[in-house]
Amino acid sequence: MLTFTAKLTVKAGGEAEFERTMRAAVPKVREEPGNHAYVLHRSKANPQVFMFYEEYTDEDALTAHRAHLREMGIDLRAVLDGPPELEFYDKLA
Predict the structure, then answer these.
(1) CATH fit for domain 6-89, picks 3.30.70.100, 3.40.47.10, 3.40.1210.10, 3.90.79.10
(2) What is this structure's pTM?
């Protein structure tokens, strides 16, 4: 199981569009084979910062997820102010 958070900082002015796009994508991602969790959060301190909590069965499921985002026309590199910050976890309980 791959469990991680992805912290994304969106370019100034793109927050509302990013939120709309990702809110629409969340239910579709949750239907992907191998996806166990995909939860979108927004920072209370900085409205440009979003965080996803994600769980996938394995690396193949994560690779398929990234391809699915591209198929939906979502190019995070175009809207982010820097690379995502990923932090992986061991699921204990």
Answers:
(1) 3.30.70.100
(2) 0.93
